[in-house]
Amino acid sequence: MPEPHPHWHAFAWNGSSVPPDGQARDPNAAVMPRELTAWFVKPVALHRGAYGTVEDAYRWLERELDGAVTVSGRVPQHELACALKHLKLRQDAYVGLYTSGGILVRALLTCPRTGADARPVRCPGWPSP
After folding, report:
1. Of 93, 120, 119, 116, which Cα lies nearest the Cα of 105?
2. Distance between CA atoms of 42 and 26, rounded to whole angstroms?
3. Domains of the chain, residue spans
4. Under DSSP, is residue 81 helix (H, G, I), strand (E, B) or coil?
5. Are 57 and 108 in contact (CB under 8 A)?
């Protein structure tokens, strides 16, 4: 079977607090998981698409963080810069922020998985739904 085209899956979650461990580990609970790879088994409602280029993945993240401000009043420019660095290295990019509205989490995860995390995952759809 041919190797799938490398791409990133986008996942998003907003909540008022960190979910309890049982919910985070439950594949049927639509809350952020504790481990990055676990996003792939969470409900499809958390999946926001798939992106085949650094530029497209980064644009999604930029749009998602547009207007976000942390509880300390900081805009997430540092997080965006770090995410871009990871994307350029074909790595996962993960941003979690405490905002006045609660917790905002955005993840761009490589597919297929590589490195120490190289294990099969259910690809939620490529190209983007």
Report:
1. 93
2. 8
3. 7-111
4. helix
5. yes
Q: How far apart are CA 93 and CA 99, in angstroms?
A: 19
| pLDDT at residue 6, as a whole number | 86
- Amino acid identity, residue 60? W
> Within its chain, how far is the Cα of 32 from the centroid?
10
Quote the tokens at residue 5: 């085209």
Largest CA distance in the chain: 49
What Cα–Cα distance (Å) separates residue 85 from each residue in 27, 41, 42, 91, 108?
Answer: 30, 26, 26, 9, 13
E strand segments, the chain:
7-15, 47-51, 93-99, 102-111
| Model confidence pLDDT, tens digit, residues 9-40 | 999 999 999 999 999 999 999 999 999 989 99
Q: Give the mean pLDDT of 53-68.
A: 97
